[in-house]
Each structure stands twice: as C-alpha cells, then as structure tokens.
C-alpha cells in the first residue's frame, strides 16, 4: 500500500485532551477556512456558512450549549458550521447539506493537522442554545462546532477496526478479493 502524506497525517492524528492557553495565528485560521471553501459538496452547492468565534464570552456560551464540553471550554477559536442553503441531491431529493458540512469539517480537520493545529469536532449540543450566541437565523441548521487550537495533552487514537471488517471488495461479503486494476 502506498503511504501518502495524507495517510500519514490521518494515521498520526491524535484526539486532543484539552487546548493549550495559546492563541492561534490568524493566518492559520484563515488557511483552515480557505481549505473548507474547497471542500466537495453535492451539486457544488457549497451550502455552508462558517461563523468563526474568537470572542471569549461567546466561546464560553457555545461550550455551555455543548453541555460544557471541555474542548470547547479551552479552544481559542470555535467554528460554528451552518447550512445556509438546504441543498439536496437531484433524483432522490435527499438532503445533502449534512454530508456537505461533514466534508467541510473533515477538510478543516485535515488542513489544521497539516499546520500542527488540532480540531475537536462536536456534534452534541443544543442547537437552540447555539443559535442566539452568534445570531443564526431560525431556518439555518447548525451542523457542528469545531474547536481549534494547539493541544495541551493528546489522547491515543482509538484502535482502528480491522481492514477486513470495514472494507469489502466487489460484494458485501468479500473480504479479500482484490483485482489488479487496468
Ligand atoms: C460527526 C462527529 C461528531 C462528533 N461529535 C462529538 C461530540 O459531540 N463530542 C465529542 O466529545 N466528540 C465528538 N466527536 C469526536 C469523536 O468522538 C472523536 O473523533 C474521537 O474521540 C476520536 O476518535 P476517532 O479517531 O475515531 O475520531 C465527533 C466526531 C465526529 C466525526
């Protein structure tokens, strides 16, 4: 298997325990958000709007909205990830904005890792408590909070499930029938 730079980043990813009391340089924050702008989205809808929260009181309220999540309590920057457009895929009409926002969030995590910055992805929050903190309109879904910062302690990455369990070749049941591609 070829070990790409991205694979190295993914494998070396470690969840943060807490964020250090150290500000993030603005050019790092901007680079992370620029990466998000280039994330893939269904029909290229780019349905996102990211509210970058730096102000201490607002960050504190966001952490409260996420049941006092320790990462959000210590993150110097929190990105509130919202879906400005209720994008959907053609054909099935299924909503695509949650997937699009997830792709953008993952893109930010990777861009952050490339800069030695850590991201903490939090989905467990009360949307109705998040919304007023940064004046998000009622019809705009909030799909995630991403704490960004330098780490103060890293946890171990949980063990990965074995390849045969998560990857099938050609058919659901096939664990190892790799073919050489043309
Ligand atoms: C969609 C999504 C939602 C998450 N929501 C939360 C959350 O609400 N609270 C939390 O502590 N971690 C949350 N996380 C972080 C995961 O728990 C974290 O990725 C995990 O602790 C590290 O292991 P992993 O390598 O499997 O990601 C979330 C991650 C993802 C991808």
Query: How can the largest sheet be summarized?
Result: 4 strands, antiparallel
Beta-strand residue percentage: 5-15%
- Strand tally, please? 4
| Mean pLDDT across every amino acid position | 93
Tell me the name of the CATH class.
Answer: Alpha Beta
Distance between the termini: 17 Å
Give an account of the 3D structure.
There is one protein chain. The chain has 182 residues and is an alpha+beta fold. It has a single domain (11-149), classed as 3-Layer(aba) Sandwich (NADH Oxidase). The protein is built from seven helices and four strands, in the order ααβααβαβαβα. The protein has helices at 5-11, 26-37, 56-65, 70-74, 97-114, 127-130, 163-166, and strands at residues 48-53, 77-83, 118-122, 142-149. It has a four-stranded antiparallel β-sheet. Helix 2 (26-37) runs antiparallel to helix 5. The longest helix has 18 residues, at 97-114. The chain is globular. The two termini are 17 Å apart. The model has no long low-confidence stretch (mean pLDDT 93). Bound molecules: flavin mononucleotide (FMN). Flavin mononucleotide is lined by residues 15, 121-124, 157-158.
């Amino acid at each position: 298997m070829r070990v790409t730079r991205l694979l190295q980043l993914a494998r070396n990813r470690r969840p943060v325990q807490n964020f250090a009391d150290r500000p993030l340089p603005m050019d790092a924050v901007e680079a992370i958000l620029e990466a998000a702008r280039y994330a893939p989205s269904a029909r290229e809808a780019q349905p996102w709007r990211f509210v970058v929260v730096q102000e201490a009181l607002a960050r504190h309220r966001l952490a409260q909205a996420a049941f006092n999540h320790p990462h959000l309590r210590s993150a110097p920057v929190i990105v509130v990830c919202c879906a400005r457009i209720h994008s959907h895929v053609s054909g099935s009409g299924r909503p695509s904005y949650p997937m699009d926002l997830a792709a953008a969030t993952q893109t930010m995590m990777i861009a952050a890792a490339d800069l030695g910055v850590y991201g903490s992805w939090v989905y467990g929050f009360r949307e109705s408590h998040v919304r007023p903190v940064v004046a998000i309109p009622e019809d705009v879904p909030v799909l995630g909070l991403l704490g960004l910062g330098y780490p103060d302690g890293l946890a171990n990455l949980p063990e990965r499930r074995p390849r045969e369990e998560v990857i099938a070749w050609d058919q659901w049941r096939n664990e190892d029938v790799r073919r050489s591609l043309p």
